[in-house]
Amino acid sequence: MEQGQTTGLAVRDAVVRYGATRRRAGAVAVDGVSLDVAAGEIVALLGPSGCGKSSLLRAVAGLEPLAGGTVAFDGEDLAGVPVHRRGFGLLFQDGQLFPHRDVGRNVAYGLETQGVPRAERAARVAELLADVGLAGYAGRSVATLSGGEKQRVALARSLAPRPRLLLLDEPLSALDRRLRERLAVDVRDTLTATGTTAVFVTHDHDEAFTVADRVAVMDAGRLLQVDAPDVLLRAPATPRVAEFLGLSADGVADDSEPSGARTAAVTTSSGHDVV
Amino acid sequence: MDGDGRRLTRPVPRVPAGTARPAPRAARSRAERWRGDRWGAWLGWGVAVALPLGFLAVFFAWPVVSLVLQGFFTETAAGRELDLSGFAEVLSQERTWRIVGQTLAQALTGTLLSVLLGLPGAYVLYRCRFPGRTLVRGLVTVPFVLPSVVVGVAFRALFAPGGLLGWAHLEESFAGIVLALVFFNYAVVVRTVGGMWERLDPRAEQAARALGATPWRAFRTVTLPALGPAIASAAAVVFLFCATAFGVVLVLGGLRYGTIETEIWTRTTQFLDLRSAAVLSVLQLVVVAGALLVSSRARAKRERALHLTSDSVSAHRLRLRAGADGTDLVPALVTLVVVAGLLVLPMAGLVTRSLRAPDGSWGLDNYVALGTTGGRNALTVTVWEALGNSLRTAAWAALIAVVVGGLVALVVSRRPRRAGLRRAVGVLDAAFMLPLGVSAVTVGFGFLITLDEPLGLDVDLRTSGALVPIAQAVVAIPLVVRTMLPVLRAIDPRLREAAAALGAAPGRVLRTVDGPLGARSLGLAIGFAFAVSLGEFGATSFLARPDTATLPVVIYRLIGRPGAENYGMALAASVVLAVLTATVMMVAERLRGDRPGGEF
Q: Among partner residues B12, B20, B34, which is closest to A190 by beta-carbon distance?
């Protein structure tokens, strides 16, 4: 990805601070990160808890102010543009479904905001629920859904307004392992099928490799390496990257898991069922 | 989980890039376009802050401050002069210190007893399951919303010679007042502590048990510390209510016992001594400010502590027999005695006595008499007309209180990013708690001396009849805020962020997220405000004119007049008012459902 691209997301030298006041500088969560995401691309932000990946995502969404640097989309600087005008979708770890709306009206929320006519809205909701494997769930109360179903509804809801960029903040972390592996594949399928540009935050390298085209490894507020999964596995830039990917310091896989995960991702994108 | 495992096999047509995206507009960037709604947002929040602040300034701060200043200044020919001799004079009176001592003694004893009796109640009603629990919970809540005058009349009927407790000689006694205060505030402790206890993760106590602690030791070392902030918060609120008790003390205390509040009333209305009343108001403010400080500290801790608790409600069956896990016999017995003896007995006594006709026979004579103006025309209006006045003013008061209090709760529920704004929000929160502690008598009396020409306008609000609902609203606003705030604060901020990410502008987020989720607390808040306004006596007794007298005012007037007929009418009117407020509260509770609600 060359610098200065005009399509997609461009983050330049982003700094995010917490607890800053006039007297104190506050803690630095994101420390001068630059990252590009091309249109249609899925990039995973991978790093341990507290490395600043969620803060970076929230800054891109417009939920945290930048203490420095810029966030631009399609060449337009987004400084001062509030969340609801950015046209970005956002998916939280625990879905954050509206408890007072049923499944269908949750998915329809963004469409109502856009003023989409009722009939068209209903058709789109039905289509999206079918896409995430929950056809016919529109009338269900969200309280009756299982954890995985909730995340599927949340995914459908964030895709409904056709966001120009979808931000996923550890969307699968609250689920159990088997379900997480299956849903990671499903999420990738849905994102690629809808041609959605996406940033996917996770602390699980298997998940990152399954979902993303490129993986950005983050630690202590800084980006260590941004590369396609196979490059990352073959040539980790630093011992810290290797360590976090579960490789020994000399860059050789400790176990077969990461490469296995990559295989899964490859077969997935070619359309085969891996589960 | 079948649904989770399903694969997304359906092929999804690829959306051509750019089709559904907003058409690019070269002329105006996104940043330019939204500047308009940023101004809108500032304007909206500005109004949400300015309207309540303006209300508080005109209808609370100004009257109260004006009244208090009467204690500091004297009018001389040269103009106003600072004069602290009023303080010296009042503070050197033996009577003043007797009243202050009585206020503190009554409040402390009442608080202590409420907490001691309320803890077992909270345990039995919120941690145990038994048939009829909902009914008992409702029953326990009723006294809290009962008008203070009604409670006074009920206890007086109980203690009077020939009453159910006539043999105990509690009439005009310290013990009698304290019992009435506990009757009132038992519910505050049970509900505040119970609400917390219900949500306390039982596994902490189980872990202690597994480490070898006896049930009592586990309670003492794990549960009690966790409940500490809730207990402290409840105790501070109860102390506040006890220290500013007015109607109940006025009716029960007679000439021997009083509080600073009743003393202010006596000195203004009986002795027309405004200066010493103003000095006493300052004295009361000091007591109240201390209690509020403790209360807000405890509340902040409680809201922090709430994060540690589990969402699931954990209750076990009431165990009346000794088992491996101990028995609930003692708390169950204490609760039974309190509910039956302290809560039900006075109410039952009131109803029974109200059915006793003036000639000693049983019948509805007292209720029939409610259509009259009392013996020897004790009243200007019939009791039914007073009831109409009460309902009308309470409806207006509830409307004002919910609009103003709702806006305050909305603003205070926000956590602004800027530290300065956060502090400002905290100050706003505290400011609207003040009416809870400042004597309603002070407010009512302050209205009288300031609002003849509000803000220099040539309208005398005192004769317009608008002051009564406004004064009642001032008293009800803190309760509305405290009812709605916890519910609004419990809305996960990420829910709003999710809505914003879906394209909802701030106003729309408010309408589609905060609105529906806060609506349940709105029902309870309206009910609360209405019930409190119905029973408000302190300020109303100053402001209501004879022809617009409300039910509590009429009741107090009736018991002050001689004659068995008037006394019987007062009893019957008290029953009517009690039934009315209790019904309003029950309906409001229904509206709330099972969600964890406010603090009272």
A: B12
Residue B355 has pLDDT above 50, yes or no: yes
Measured at the CA of B268, the angle between CA B264 and CA B269, to 5 degrees, comes to: 115
Pick B503's closest partner by Cβ from A76, A100, A114: A114
Going from the C-alpha of B472 to that of each of A95, B311, B536, B544, the distances in angstroms are: 43, 36, 6, 11
- Say whether A162 and B5 touch across the interface (CB within 8 A): no
- Measured in degrees and rounded to the nearest 5, phi and psi for residue A90 equal -140, 130
Predicted local distance difference test score (pLDDT) of residue B381 = 82
Interface contact B517, partner A, CB < 8 A = yes
The pLDDT of residue A261: 42
Task: Report CA B306 to chain centroid distance, whole Å.
Answer: 21
Give the minimum alpha-carbon distance from A34 to chain B in angstroms, rounded to a whole number.
Answer: 22
Task: Give the residue among A23, A22, A45, A50 at the shortest CA–CA distance from A35.
Answer: A45
On chain B, the residues whose CB falls within 8 A of the CB of A193 are 11-14
Q: Count CB neighbours of B426 within 10 A.
A: 13
Contact flag A161-B502 (C-beta cutoff 8 Å): yes
Unique residue bearing structure tokens 């896990």: B325
Task: Determine, for residues B14 and A193 on separate chains, whether the beta-carbon distance falls below 8 Å.
Answer: yes
**Global ipTM:** 0.78
Q: What is the pLDDT of residues B156-188, one digit of tens each?
A: 888 887 777 777 777 778 888 999 999 989 988
CB contact under 8 A, A161 and B4: no
Chain A and chain B share a number of CB contacts under 8 A equal to 147
Interface check for A134 against chain B (CB to CB < 8 A): the answer is yes
A56 pLDDT more than 70:
yes
Average pLDDT over residues B265-271: 81
Q: Which amino acid is at A188?
A: R
Handedness of CA B423, B429, B433, B434 (dihedral sign): positive
B129 in contact with A at a CB cutoff of 8 Å?
Answer: no
Copy the structure tokens of residue A93: 């770890």
Nearest residue of B to residue A137, measured between CA atoms: B3
Task: Verify whether the Cβ–Cβ distance B419 to A21 is below 8 Å.
Answer: yes
Q: Is B453 left (phi over 0), alpha (psi -120 to 50) or beta?
A: beta
| A82–B500 CB contact, under 8 Å | yes
Contact call for B21 and A147, based on CB within 8 A: no
Q: Do A99 and B517 touch (CB under 8 A)?
A: yes
Q: Which of B1, B2, B8 to mutate to test the interface with A (most CBs of A within 10 A)?
A: B8
pLDDT confidence band for B79 (50 / 70 / 90): low
User: Got the DSSP string for chain A?
Assistant: --TT-SSSEEEEEEEEEES--SS---EEEEEEEEEEE-TT-EEEEE--TTSSHHHHHHHHHTSS--SEEEEEETTEE-TT--GGGS-EEEE-TT----TTSBHHHHHHHHHHHHT--HHHHHHHHHHHHHHTT-TT-TTSBGGG--HHHHHHHHHHHHHTT--SEEEEESTTTTS-HHHHHHHHHHHHHHHHHTT--EEEEES-HHHHHHH-SEEEEEETTEEEEEE-HHHHHH--SSHHHHHHTTB-TTS-BSSSHHHHHHHHHHHHHTT----
Q: What separation in angstroms does the CA of B364 have from each of B201, B203, B339, B359?
A: 52, 56, 28, 12
- Compute the nearest-CA separation of B313 from chain A (Å): 16
- Report yes or no: B32 at the A interface, CB cutoff 8 Å: no
Per-residue pLDDT, A72: 93
pTM for the whole structure:
0.76
Cβ B509 vs Cβ B515: under 8 Å: no
Supply the pLDDT for residue A256.
42
A175 has pLDDT over 90: no
CB contact under 8 A, B495 and A130: no
| Residue B301 confidence (pLDDT) | 63
